[in-house]
Amino acid sequence: MLASVRTKGRFVPLAILGLVLAVLVVSGYAFYTKPNFERLNPLQRYVVAAVVAKWEKQVEAPSGEKQPRMEYNSLMNQLNFIEKMMVERIFAIDPGELGFKGPFHTLEQPGNLVKVPPRTYILKGQGKSTGSQYCPEASYNDYLRMMAQMRRDLGRELFINSGYRSPGMQAYLFLYYLAKTHQYSLQETARAVAFPGYSEHGDPVNNALDFINAAGIDGESPGQTPEDFERLPEYQWLLQHAHKFNFYLSYPRNNSLGVAFEPWHWHWEKPGSAKAATGTK
Fold it and tell me: N or C: which end of the chain has fewer CB within 10 A?
């Protein structure tokens, strides 16, 4: 006779009950275990993919543009208990454990940002938009002066492809690249995208800008490499002249911050401050 227990007037075979308990134990262990930095386990990957799918709907404006000022709490409120716990567990990790050696900046959002009009570039014969970006006033004014000089010298200019990013937008980008590009490797993702609070894009003063040229070369779009941007005359011009406008290359090759080479990423510094390449994408 099959052993069973009585539950609310029904008899449940112990074998089935044991199977259910075993599934719960295994699932609980898979979820609650410390994330493997090289690759998340299948259950953790499933939860992260679900978070990205939900957040993607929130950060995309009706026009298709990303919303760089998306609030972190607004995104977290879209998640269920399990999803929230997974996100919090990931961002509770010390970035230093993942190889990132840059400083913490802030989780505070600045109130006085300049809205940068979208610019159109041509990629594979099609017009694409940078979308609306935001910058602190000081860095944006220096960007405008720098581009005026580049146009005089080269007859070319670079557009702002990414300016200020809120902690919410940074959280979305980290999980997006974790799921879509870096095969759920926290270590690989941390070499390219910072945790919320650790990105120069979120610094309200010494803000970073990512550039793209009129031909759609930014060094990180599908089918492109950093060397594609590195070969641009615009990049060579930046190496010689950007410091005159208070912009500095944050991540040269073999930098000490544990960040991949990013020739498109330049951070602004307040005049008179010590030159330092700090932060991440």
Answer: N
